[in-house]
Amino acid sequence: MFFPEPDSPLSNAMMKKTLSRIFFALGLLWSSSLFAQVSTEPSVPNASAPVKIIYDASEGTTGLEDCNCDVYIHIGAVTEGPESTTWSIVPFEWGQDIPEAKMTKVEGEDNIYTFELTPDDFFENPNGQTIYRLGMVFRNVDGTREGKTSSNSDFFVDLSQGFGVQITDPSGPSLSLEVGEGYSVKAETSEEAEISFELDGEQVATVASSTSLTYDFVATEPGSFRLEAIATAGGETDTQSLDIVVFGASQIEELPAGARLGINYISDTEVILALQAPGKKLAHVIGDFNDWEVLPEYQMNRTPDGEIFWLRIENLVPQQEYIFQYLVDASIRIGDPYADKTSDPFNDQEIITQGRYPGLKPFPAGKTNFQATYLQTAQEPFEWQNTNYEKPAPENLVVYELLVRDFDEERTYQAVIDRLDYLEELGVNAIELMPVGEFEGNLSWGYNPSFFFAPDKYYGTKNDLKRLIDAAHGKGMVVILDMVLNHAFGQNPMVRLYNDGDYGAPTEDNPWFNRVAKHPFNVGYDFNHESEYTREFVDSVNNYWLTEYKVDGFRFDLSKGFTQVNSGDNVNFWSQYDPSRIAIWKHIYDQIKANHPDAYVILEHLAANDEEKELADYGLMFWGNMNGDFRELAKGENRSFNWAYHGERDWNEPNLIAYQESHDEERVMWESLNFGNTSLLNIRELENAINRNQLLTAFFFAVPGPKMLWQFGEFGYDEELNNDRLGIKPTRWEYLDDPQRNRLFQLYKEMIHLRTAHQVFSNPEEVVLTLSGNVKSIILEHADMDVVIHGNFGLSNAGNVPLAFPSTGTWYNYFTGEEFNVTGSTVNFNLRPSEFYLFTNERLPTPERGILQEDFVTSIPREPVNSSEFAVYPNPSSGQLFVQLPKGMNEANYRIIDMTGKEVKEGQTTTDNQILEFDLGNIKAGLYIFEAFDTRRVLHQRFIKN
Question: What is the DSSP secondary-structure string of 259-287?
Fold first, then answer.
C-alpha cells in the first residue's frame, strides 16, 4: 500500500477516510476466543474427519480438577451458523452413566482427558444439516461437578467444512498496534498444504508443505492493512483474512489539574473527557461533533502512567446535546462510565414512541453501535425547593419500598410525585426507590445496572427524578436509593473494556471485575471490591448521588457479595464471618459519612449474626428479613418472630430494619388467601385473612426499631410473586375501595402514627417479648409512656387467659378508648382468633372509627340472622336479662361491655339451650352492649339497665 509522507495534507486526508471506514467495520464484528483448557488435534478440525478433543481439568472453572473420578463429555452440534451458541443436536443426557460419553484419561497426567469423534458421523443428523461448531461441557458421572470455561460458559470448537485454513493467533478478526510494535500472526490448516501470507496483495511469507505458518508483522508506519492467509491442498484453496490497524503513539501528557474521570465541563463551549483504561494502547473520541469519524485530532492523550486517556474538545454549542463514544484500541466502542445520560440502540425508540422523555434524540444508527452517552454544556441548574426538611433518626424510620415501574400504571417519576399525598396519609417517613440507575432494557426491577451515574430514561428525565426527591422532602419524607454495586451487566463500559467478545465475561486483566463471581447468587459480573479501581469508583458513585440528587442514603443490594473470599456455590461458607468483607464495608461507610454524616447506610446482608452485629454497632443498618416467619403465621401456623428485635440478636444499636415483605418474597396476604388454615378458622376467607394480617401487622409494628413495608402490603396485595417473578404486576389501587382491605390500611396508618409519634416504639427502656405461644405479648416501657399488646395467634378462642401488665393503675385501650384499672400483675381476658388489644398507660386520642373494636380490627364475618332468632329482652331491664341465640350458636363466647368498652361480664355457652339468663343487679344503670361470637360470626345488641 502507498503511504504519503506522514505530515502531508494528502496523508491526513487519506488517514481520516481510511481509518474511519475500517474502524466502523471492525467495531461491528464479533470475535470468539480459543480456550487453552480445550484443544484439538488437528488444530483446525474438519466436520467430516476425525478430531481428538483434549480437556485440561486444571483450567477454566476447575470443577473437575484432581477429582479422582471418571470424566464425561456433554457435547452438542451447532447447526444454526458459525457464530451460534445453540446446541441443535445433543446425544447424551446430563448426569447419566453413559459409556459412550466417558472420556479417556491420559496416562501419567492427573487432569488431562481426551475424546475422539468424527462430527458428521457422530451426531444423528437425518436432515443433513451443516455442523459448524461443537459445544461442550465436562462433568462427573452425576453432574454434581462440572468443568466450563474460566467465564463459566460452554466451550466451543469451530469446524471447517472440507479443507480449511484459520488464523489462530490472534483469535479475533482484527488487530490494532502502535507504530513500533510487532505481532507473530499464525495460520493453521486442517491438513498439510501450501500456505502463504499476503499483505495487501503482496506475498510476505510462504511454506511449501506444512500445517502451519507464522508471519512476524512489524508496525513501521500508521495505516490500515489486510493480511490474508492462503492455503492450497489437493486442488482446494481456502483463505482467511486479518485486518490490522496501526496508529501513531498516543501523545503522553498529564491530565489537566482539577479534571476528573468522566465529563468535565470547563466552559459553555469546552469539555475535557477522561477515560480510565490502564493497559490499553490508544483511544479516540467519536460522536456528533465529528460526524462519528475516527480523526487524528480526536485521538486522546495518555497520561505518563498509562492509566488515563483524555482529550479537550472545544467550540461546542452551549446547551446542545452531543452523543459520543470512546473507541478504544480500534475495536471497543463504549459510552462514558460517568455520564448521566445514555443513548441506547435497542431501547430508546420505545421511549421516543411512547413520549416518555421529551426531546430524546434517536440513537445514531448506521454511524455506530453499542451504548453511547451524552454531553451538554451550559445546563440550567436544578432549583431545589425543600432543603430544610428534618431527617428522622435511624431508629424511627418507617420505610416504604416502591418500584417506580409498578407503583403506578404510568410508570414515571411524575406518577410517584402524584401519589405522594397517599404516602403522606399513610404516615411513612422514608421512601426507598428500587434501582433507578440506567439498567439494561426498559422494564426491569433495576438490578441489572449498566451505567451507574445515569437515571433510567424510561421513567423520565433526571430533573423529573430530582423533582420527585424534592417533593418527597417537602412532605417530610427522606429518599433512600436501592444501590446496586455488587455487580454490573454486559453493557457496562468497564465490563466491555476488558472482556470476551462484545458482551462476554470480564478478562483476568479487568481492573474492576472478577472473571468468575466469588460467591453464590451472583448475577451479571462481580465487582472486585478489594481492587483500588473499584474502591474509588464505588466511593465516587455514592458521593455523586448524595450530592447531585440530594438522596438521603442507600440500601445496598447483595452487600454480602462485597468480598474476595471465594465461597463458590457454598452458601453457608459465604454467610460466615468475613473480616475482609467487614473492612470493605467500614471503608464504604466511613467515606459516605465523611461527606454526608447524616446519610443512612443500609445493607441487604443476611449474613452471620456476629458479622452483622459488628457492623451494626459500627453504625450500619441492616435489612431484617422476617418474611418466612410471617408467612407461616399468616397461614395459621405458630412461629416466634423475636429475631425482628435487635436486642434478641445482642446488638447494641437499634439498626435492624425488620420487614414482613420485600420485593424478593411472596406476599403475606397471598399466603393467607391461598394456603391459610381452613379448619376451625377459614383464613382463606378475605375477612378472616384481613383479621389475621391485622394481627401480624399490629405486632410487627410493636417490635421496637425501624420498619419497612413493601408497596401495597398496607392493603393486602395478593398477586403471586413467582408467577412471572420479574414481570409487571398490576397495581390494585382499587383494593382501597374494599371495606375489608381498607380496614387493614387504616390499621397500618394507626400503627405507623403510633410508632413515629412515640419514642417507646423506637427507644424503649425495657422490652419484654413473649412470642412463643399462641397468645403472644409485647411489653414496652419508656419514661414517657408504657405500651402493652396482647393477641391470639391461635385458631380457636383463648378463654380466661391471664395477660401481663408491667404496672398497676389506669390503662387505656388505644383503639376503643376503654379505661380500666389494673390491680395486679395480670388481667384475665377472652380472645377470639386474631383478636388483639393494644394498651397504653397514658390516654391518647382514639382513632375516629367508633367505640366498637370490631368496626376496625379483628372482625368476624356477619352472617345474616333473622331478628326473631336473636333477641335481648326485656329492654330496658331492671335486673334480669334474657338473651335468645340463633340455632347453631350453642358453643359461643359472650360478653357484656359498657360504653367505654370495659367488660363487665363474660363467659361461654355450654348447653343446647339457646336462651341465656343474666342477673344485672350488681351493675350500675346505663347503656350496655351484649356481644356473642363464635368462629363464624359476631352478634351485637344494645340494651339499657335501669
Answer: --SEEEEEETTEEEEEEE-TT---EEEEE
Report the length, in residues, of the chain.
Answer: 946
- 877 pLDDT exceeds 80? yes
For the purposes of burial, counting CB atoms within 10 Å of the CB of 799, is it exposed (0-12), middle (13-18) or buried (19 or more)? middle
Q: Which residue pairs, CB below 8 angstroms and at least 24 apart, start in 199-207?
A: 199/225, 199/226, 199/227, 199/228, 200/1, 200/225, 200/226
Supply angle C-alpha 663, 665, 669, rounded to 5: 100
| Rounded distance between C-alpha atoms, residue 525 and residue 490, angstroms | 8
According to CATH, the superfamily of the domain at 620-855 is Golgi alpha-mannosidase II (2.60.40.1180)
pLDDT in tens, 627-672: 999 999 999 999 999 999 999 999 999 999 999 999 999 999 999 9
Quick one: pLDDT at residue 913? 65
Q: Is the pLDDT confidence value at 3 over 80?
A: no
For residues 531 and 310, give the distance between their C-alpha atoms in angstroms, rounded to a whole number. 22
Q: Are the C-beta atoms of 780 and 765 separated by less than 8 Å?
A: no
Determine the Cα–Cα distance for residues 774 and 684; give it in Å rounded to an integer: 19
Task: Identify the helix (H) or strand (E) that includes residue 124.
Answer: none
DSSP-derived secondary structure letter, 858: S
Phi–psi pair at 444, nearest 5 degrees: -155, 160
pTM of structure: 0.78
DSSP annotation string for 729-785: ----GGGGGSHHHHHHHHHHHHHHHHHHH-GGGTS-SEEEEE-SSSEEEEEEE-SS-
Element at 480 (helix H, strand E): strand 478-483
Q: Could you tell me whether strands 51-56 and 308-313 are parallel, antiparallel, or unpaired per DSSP bridges?
A: unpaired
Confidence at 27, pLDDT banded by 50, 70, 90: very low
Peptide bond into 42 cis (omega under 30): yes
Local structure of 11: helix, strand or coil: helix
Domain ranges of the chain: 38-158, 165-247, 620-855, 871-945
Distances from the Cα of 268 to the Cαs of 259, 288, 315, 359, 381, in angstroms? 16, 17, 9, 21, 13
> Smallest Cα–Cα separation from 89: which of 72, 76, 73, 75?
76
Give the integer Cα–Cα distance in Å for 829 and 791: 10
- Residue 234 has a CB neighbour count (10 Å cut-off) of 10
Mean pLDDT of all residues in 814-818: 85
Q: How does pLDDT run across 180-235, given as a tens digit for each residue? A: 899 999 999 988 999 999 999 999 999 999 999 999 999 999 888 999 999 999 89
The angle formed by the CA atoms of residues 464, 470 and 475, to the nearest 5 degrees, is 125
CA-to-CA separations, 246 to 16, 184, 325, in angstroms, rounded = 13, 15, 20
Third-level CATH fold of 165-247: Immunoglobulin-like (2.60.40)
Q: Do domains 38-158 and 165-247 have the same CATH topology?
A: yes
Q: DSSP for 901-936?
A: S-EEEEEE--SS--EEEEE-TTS-SEEEEEEEE-SS
Tell me what pLDDT residue 339 has: 98
At the topology level of CATH, where does 871-945 sit? Answer: Immunoglobulin-like (2.60.40)
**Nearest residue to 283 via CA among 329, 220, 232, 252:** 329
Let me know: does 480 contact 552? Beta carbons within 8 Å.
yes
Fold (topology level) of 38-158: Immunoglobulin-like (2.60.40)
Q: Read out DSSP for 197-265?
A: EEETTEEEEEEEEEEEEEEEEE--SSEEEEEEEEEEETTEEEEEEEEEEEEPPPPB-PPPTT--SEEEE
* Grid coordinates given for 58: 486444571
Q: What is the mean pLDDT of the chain?
A: 91
DSSP 8-state secondary structure symbol assigned to residue 56: E
Q: Residue holding cell 497520561?
A: 303
Look at residue 663 and give its three-state secondary structure.
coil
